[in-house]
């Protein structure tokens, strides 16, 4: 039989190595499934025990998987931040989510989901314009304040 050498690593013990440039800020992607109590416990432990500042990546993509919103609501009661991609905010389905999420009061920042300069181009201005049109300059100011708070607390 073929034998290969390998190892395993418990990612929970090494989260700091995945944080942004020597900070406790972690851009966290959760699974695209119905969230469970175990997922909630893991996120809570990151925040409370490991002192990780969680920035939950592309929050708009998870909602449709949350048929039971209980864990979703519990996670967003934790002291964390969300990151929302600006692409497609004008589409009706995403627009409805954005409107609900903004009203929830969870602090969030914007992202472009730009993976390169060819297929997934940065599209920040369209999203900023959408938010400004629907929620006013005050919303843009709140997002900028959140961005500054995240950056300042980790300098």
Question: Which properties best describe this structure?
Answer:
155 residues, alpha/beta, 38% helix, globular
Layout: helices, strands, pairs:
Elements: E1 25-28, H1 37-48, E2 53-56, H2 70-75, E3 81-85, H3 92-104, E4 108-111, H4 124-135, H5 137-152
Parallel strand pairs: 1-2, 2-3, 3-4
Provide a compact summary of the structure:
This protein is of the alpha/beta class.
How would you sum up this structure, described in words?
This protein has 155 residues and is of the alpha/beta class. It is built from 5 helices and 4 strands, in the order βαβαβαβαα. The chain has a 4-stranded parallel β-sheet. Helix 4 packs across helix 5. It is globular. It starts with 24 loop residues before the first strand and ends with a helix. The relative contact order is 0.12. The mean pLDDT is 87.
Radius of gyration: 17 Å
Number of strands: 4
Percent helix, as a range, is 25-40%
Low-confidence stretches: none
Shape: globular
Distance between the termini: 52 Å
Oligomer: single chain
Describe the strand arrangement of the main beta sheet, using strand numbers: 1-2-3-4
Mean pLDDT: 87
* Main beta sheet strand tally, sense and closure: 4 strands, parallel
Put simply, the count of helices is 5
Order of helices and strands: EHEHEHEHH
Class by SSE composition: alpha/beta
Strand composition percent: 5-15%
């Amino acid at each position: 039989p073929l034998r290969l050498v390998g190892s395993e690593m418990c990612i929970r013990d090494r989260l700091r190595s995945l944080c942004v440039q020597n900070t406790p800020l972690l851009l966290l992607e959760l699974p695209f499934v119905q969230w469970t109590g175990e997922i909630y416990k893991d996120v809570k432990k990151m925040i409370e025990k490991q002192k990780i500042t969680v920035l939950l990546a592309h929050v708009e993509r998870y909602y449709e998987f949350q048929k039971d919103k209980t864990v979703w609501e519990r996670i967003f009661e934790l002291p964390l931040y969300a990151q929302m991609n600006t692409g497609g905010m004008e589409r009706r389905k995403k627009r409805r989510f954005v409107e609900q999420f903004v009203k929830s009061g969870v602090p969030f920042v914007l992202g472009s989901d730009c993976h390169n300069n060819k297929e997934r181009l940065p599209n920040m201005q369209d999203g900023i314009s959408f938010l400004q049109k629907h929620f006013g300059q005050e919303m843009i100011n709140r997002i900028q304040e959140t961005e500054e708070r995240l950056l300042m607390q980790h300098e």
